[in-house]
UniProtKB/TrEMBL annotation:
SUPFAM superfamilies named among the record's database cross-references: lambda repressor-like DNA-binding domains (SSF47413)
Gene3D superfamilies: lambda repressor-like DNA-binding domains (1.10.260.40)
Domain annotation HTH cro/C1-type: ranges: 43-78
InterPro entries assigned to the protein according to its UniProt record, in alphabetical order: Cro/C1-type_HTH (IPR001387), Lambda_DNA-bd_dom_sf (IPR010982)
Protein name, UniProt field: Helix-turn-helix transcriptional regulator
Residue ranges crossing the lipid bilayer per the database entry: none
Species this protein is from: Amycolatopsis carbonis
Any GO MF annotation of the entry: DNA binding
């Protein structure tokens, strides 16, 4: 089974391919400025370089969203591997994205999300068992 590519490897691939065809900024400074111009979060050139080289890992979801927008790829590019796509493991990708989003919530917000998940789970279980409500 092939090893899963890291976030840094995926980001570096995007940077290298965009530099090769001239689609995106060529330096980390230009990337940082382009993200900021498009309304994305402030990302320093040093932080971008650290993400691309693997010195920093697990960026917050709003940084991932900004990078995906910059390079014109879906956010799932950074989490979805060919193995997961081939096996149809979309739920694993969705779970990763949900977990990243939850990290940025307050403790109260995370509790509310968990309460909502519990409610949805009860509702779906009741539907599977042939009942009309949660």
């Amino acid at each position: 089974m092939p090893r899963q590519r890291t976030f840094a490897e995926k980001l570096s691939t995007l940077i290298d391919s965009s530099r090769a065809d001239g689609r995106a900024p060529h330096s980390y400074r230009e990337m940082s400025a382009a993200i900021e111009r498009s309304g994305g979060p402030a990302m320093s050139p040093a932080y971008l370089q650290q993400l691309a080289t693997g010195k920093r890992i697990n960026p917050k979801i709003h940084y991932v969203e900004a990078l995906a927008k910059l390079f014109g790829v879906p956010v799932t590019y950074f989490f979805d591997d060919e193995d997961e796509r081939a096996s149809g493991d979309a739920p694993a990708v969705e779970a990763k994205l949900m977990a990243m989003r939850a990290q940025e919530l307050s403790p109260q917000g995370r509790r509310q999300v968990m309460d909502l998940l519990d409610l949805v789970e009860r509702y779906e279980r009741a539907e599977r068992e042939g009942h009309s409500g949660p």
